[in-house]
Structure formats: C-alpha cells, structure tokens
Design brief:
2 copies of one chain form a homodimer. The first copy, chain A, is α/β, with parallel strands linked by helices. Chain A folds into 2 domains: 168 residues, Rossmann fold, CATH 3.40.50; 180 residues, Dehydroquinate synthase-like, alpha domain (Up-down Bundle). Chain A is 52% helix and 18% strand. In chain A, the strands form 3 sheets. Chain A has a 7-stranded mixed β-sheet with strand order 1-2-9-6-5-3-4, sandwiched between helices. In chain A, strands 7-8 form a two-stranded antiparallel ribbon. In chain A, β10 and β11 form a beta hairpin. In chain A, α3 packs across α4 and α11 runs antiparallel to α12. Chain A is globular. The first copy, chain A, starts with 5 loop residues before the first strand and ends in a 6-residue tail after the last helix. At the A-B interface, α3, α4, β7 and β8 of A face α3, α4, β7 and β8 of B.
Chain lengths: 363, 363
C-alpha cells in the first residue's frame, strides 16, 4: 500500500514529501503526472548519478526528454558561475517555462540546483531527491536555495519551495559512517527543540542509526522532517518559530569561523554549540536531569575535539553574527527535552560561561 | 497637496506608485519612513546619478548610510556577473536582510538591480526610480527582473515586486527625442489594448509628447501605468490578461531576431508588429475606421524602415517564438481601439497576410 506524503503548505502552494523505505515507489505515479510530456533537467553530481541511476529511472518514464546536468560535489560548486552555466545549458537544451528540474544529491546540489530552477525564466518548478541524511532532514525542507560569495556563505539565493521531495531511506545505506554521524547532530537538535520521542529514539538506537539500520533511520528521518515541516509551515520566512532551528548555531558558527570551515565540520561545531547552550540553559533553570541527558547523548555521538583557541576572536565572531541578524537573535536555549526558547543573554554572562566551557582549550 | 499613489496589489504585498510632476516630493515622507535607520544601496549608472543626484537627495535624509553602486548603461550590463558583483559589494559594505535597494535609471538598472535585490540574502526590499519614459511605462510595472545569457535575453531572473515606484515626470525633460519616440510605441500599444482615452491623447498631442511637454507626458504616463497596474494585478504571473501586453511582439520579436537587435530598435519592431496585427485583425472583423486610426497614428509616429528581408527566416522565428511559449500564445489582435483578444491563427493565413504586408521589402 502506498504511503501518503507529508504536505508542507506555503505561500506558493504545497510541497509533498515522501519518506521511508518505499518513498520512490510511493511517489512514482504523482511524479509521473508532473513530468508527463515535459523536458526534465536532472541536476546531480556524476558520482551520485551513477550510484542511483537505476533507482531514479522508475520516476522518469513519462518525461518527453531527460537532460542530465552536472554539478561537482562539495561546497566549492555553490557559485553564481555554476548557476549561470546550468541556466545556459538549460537554454541550449530547449528549456521552457513548463520544463521541470529535479535535484538528485546532497545539500550542494539542492541549494544550487534549486536556485537555478528558481531564476531560470523567472522560476520553473522543481522536485528534490535528497540522497544524504543531512539533505533529507535539513536542506530539503524549507525552500532555502542559494550559493556562496567569496565574502560570505549562502549570501545569494532564493526561497523557492520544491513541488515535491522524495527522501527514500534506501539512499542512506550507501552513506559512510562519518556522514551519518555529522547529520545525526541535526537529528538530535530537532529532538532537543521539539520532539522528546525523537530524542529518545536516538538515545535508544544510536548504534543502529550510525550503521544505517534502514528502519530505525527511516523512523528518525520521518520524525525530524515532520517537526521541521510544522515549524517551516508556521513561519516560512524565518520568524521566531523557524529561528529555533538555530539551536547550537550561535557558538557553532563562531567556532567554524575561528577554527576554519575546513578544519571543523558543521555537525561537530553545532554539537559543541548545543552543549554550550545546555550549559547556559541550566544556569537559567533547565532541569539538571534534562541537561545531563543532552550532555550524555552528545557525548556518545562524540564531537571532534576543539584545537587551542583564544577567547577574543570567538566573542568577536558571536558579536558579528548577532549584528548580521539585524533582528537580534541571540541564543536558542532548551527549556526541556523537546522545548526551546530564544533568549537574550548579556555578553558578560556569555563570556563567563564560555570561559569555563572552553577552559581545556583556551590558550 | 500631496497626490495619493497608485497601489498595485500582488502576491507579496502592495507596490505604491507615485506619478506626475511632483512624484518625488509626494513620495518623500513614506520613502523616508521605509529608509529610516537603514543602509541603502542606490544602484545607478554614473551618468544618471550625476544628472539626478540633487533630485534624489531629498529622499535619502533618514537612511543610516547611503552606498552608491554602479551599473554601466546599456543592455550589455545585464549579466550574471553584474549581479554577482553587486551582491559582493553589498556584502562588503555591510548589507543585511533589512538593508534597502533603490534602482535609479532606465530598464537595465531596474532589471539587474531588482534581480540583485531579489536574491541578495534571499531577497531584500527595493524601490524604483525610473528615469526614462520606457522604464516609467514598462519596466517599472510588474516586478519582472532579470539578466541576459549569451544564448537568450532575459532568461535568468525573478518576479520581485518593488515596494514602491517613483516615476517623476521631471526626469523625462532630459530625455532625447529619439528615446521618447521609441517609448511612445509602448504608450500607443497600451492605448490600443485597453484605453481609448489614452489613444486619443496621443492622437491629439503627439507633437507635445515627442517634445516632452511635461503635463501632457505626465498624463500619458499616468494613464498607461494605470492600465498596466490593473492588468498585472489581475494576473501577476502572465496568464492571458497580462499576455495582451504582447500586442505587436510576435512579429516584432521575429523582426528583431532576423534584422538583428542592434539594427532594429524594440519600439520600431513592435510598431511594425502592431501594424501587422491590425491587418490580421481587420481580416477578422476589426472595423476599418479603427484600423485606419491605428495605422494613421503609427504612421505619424513613424517606424524605421525595414531592410530587405526573406520570408522563410521570419516564419521560422515566429514558429520558434511560439514554441518557446509552451502555452501556445500566438497573436494579440485589436478588437477595437481599447480592446484586444488573443487569437490562434493558422500559419498559412499568417504567411499570406505577411507576404502582402512585407511586399516592399521582401527579396
């Protein structure tokens, strides 16, 4: 029996999201209708395309023509030049306003491919097939697309919601353990913020999750995506509700800036950030029992150790980050496992707690 | 007494449009509020900026900081590289989500500057100060932004509606007569489509209009803009209503393609296109009296003569244009002065009429 998709209702319509181990099959008939008689551009990296070509073929049967467009793996491909090249290839291949785009791959492909779809002929429809755990629980939900400038990440782009997302759990079996671990910080974050059942699922099944046990992973993805869909639908353009998703990111971003994006991965950085947010929250009344459970789970997940650091540049990066968000977002703090708030905390208090939090690596 | 602006209601809110000889003054207090305490990027060409610096200064008083960004004059500046450069300059100058953009100039500046505003940090608000007649009656209404690819004009961009438009009639006094004449084809087009009073105004005051007599020109702009606002509001994303604005463009585009954009200007091409649409319409029942009035007015406006042409490439270009619009738009035809329809006409009929229409220049 086919499973019904989730529906994310937004300004421009509805995004249908298929999850689980039979997502591709479940979505096939609706995607076929959407593609019928159209030219479709499948944007992917060569490696991902080879890996999943067979799985995707079932979706493509009704398209008038399938055109493959390549994007290199990795953050370096997220540039305006890539968007321009994709658009030129789409023009040359006869792309029109009723042509379709499908992005197949991780966050890079959906960010840059979604942006290309959003500005080609002033916007054509697209669907997403995220093949990494992080893309399934993060990049594919919310319609954020974009590329980097040399001066700033994700600084050019669009809100362009896909018409559908197919997050098939079978894709995840090919992922290396280190990718699963990085993405799991995102899953734990959603549990802390809004879903105690998801938090417990990770607590009780961490080993299974990190070895990509299909059913457990599918359940975790389904819960994480459901929570995000609710948060994004309530608040498409980043009001307070959606901002809760920045738990762990205030210190996390500062650490990435100071240590260097190449040397500290995003998941690890957010892990440290969530640990610190827990410390701040405990000082404001978060029950020690909850704080201990968060610390224990993050400890089992295991963050990469921080190198030797100086306090001043970290505070400076936090200050700049806050200034960049003119609305003054400061700290997202857990109130309990499954609930969080946005709190304004003085710099002095932050510095005091940070000094003790980082004591083992401060120079 | 301040004049109330027009309001164009669209998906994302309302665009307020100030027209007439005191538009800048009338808009000043609302624009001041919109700018208060913000960083504003004024995108313009160096020449236009110098010409209108003083006029604009009255608008800028409340901004926290005014940053000037340059775009070269002319179609060649409408590229992805220009958008990327503008975005980088905005990042470097501290642009944030609550920063503002103002475009000051003709169609190029509003197309490329509006696109930059629409994708910088996934979209920030902008206002338009169109300084050419064509931009006042065309580019500034409807939220179309974009750039060219080497393979196709306006093929990358966004619908991004400005928050406000200030079309001050005083700007038009500095325009050369040849620019006014090109833009007047657009005004006549709107008259034929939807506004008999505007058509009569051009009939009775063509000489004044072509010498930029301020009050007459202001009245023509106001009527043309009002009609377009109604059409765009009814149909933001190019359904049939908005497509009526393509009167004269089916043959016009084909002539531009065959003769070359550099050798035949857009206004002239659309003029020839409208003349031909009138011929087709007459064969389907448009009253000869109306057809004659249209021909007479276009004749007085005077289109650049067409060079020697071959039939086959023109038909081919029309065919390609039709294919590119997958919804199959073919011909917009006047039903009377002030009313038009979209008609599907067989290629054979078109060819027959075109052979006679172009007989003086066919090889």
């Amino acid at each position: 029996m086919a499973v019904s998709p989730l529906a994310l209702v937004h300004e421009g319509g509805t995004t249908r999201i298929w999850l689980g181990a039979t997502a591709l099959t479940d979505a096939a008939s609706e995607v076929a209708l959407w593609l019928a008689g159209r030219r479709v551009f499948v944007i992917s990296s060569a490696a991902v395309r080879e890996l999943h070509r067979e799985a995707l073929e079932g979706l493509m049967g009704t398209a008038a023509e399938v055109v493959e467009l390549n994007v290199a793996d990795g953050e370096n491909a997220k540039t305006m030049s890539t968007v321009e090249r994709l658009a030129r290839e789409m023009v040359v291949a006869g792309g029109k306003r009723d042509s379709r785009v499908i992005t197949l791959g991780g966050g890079t492909v959906s960010d840059v491919g979604g942006f290309a779809a959003g500005c080609f002929l002033r916007g054509i429809e697209y669907g997403q097939v995220p093949t990494t755990l992080l893309a399934q629980v993060d990049a594919s939900i919310g319609g954020k697309t974009g590329v980097n400038l040399p001066e700033a990440k994700n600084s050019v782009g669009l809100f362009h919601q896909p018409r559908w997302v197919v997050s098939d759990a079978r894709f995840l079996s090919t992922l290396p353990a280190r990718e699963l671990r990085q993405a799991m910080f995102e899953v734990v974050k959603v549990g802390i913020l809004a879903d105690p059942v998801l938090f417990e699922l990770v607590e009780s099944s961490l080993a299974d999750l990190l070895t990509a046990a299909p059913e457990t992973l599918a359940r975790a993805v389904e819960r994480a995506v459901s929570v995000k869909v609710a948060m994004v639908a309530a608040d498409e353009r980043e009001g307070d509700r959606r901002r809760l998703l920045n738990l762990g990111h205030t210190l996390g971003h500062a650490l990435e800036t100071v240590v260097g994006h190449g040397r500290l991965r995003h998941g690890d950085a957010v892990g440290h950030g969530m640990l610190f947010a827990t410390t701040l929250a405990e000082a404001r009344g978060l029950a020690s029992e909850d704080a201990d459970r968060i610390r224990a789970l993050l400890g089992r997940l295991g963050m990469a150790q921080l190198p030797s650091l100086k306090m001043a540049p970290i505070l400076e990066a936090i200050r700049r980050d806050k200034k960049a968000r003119e609305s003054g977002l400061a700290w997202v703090l857990p109130l309990a496992i499954g609930r969080a708030e946005i709190a304004d905390i003085s710099e002095l208090t932050v510095e005091k707690h940070l000094a003790s939090f980082l004591k083992d690596c401060l120079e």
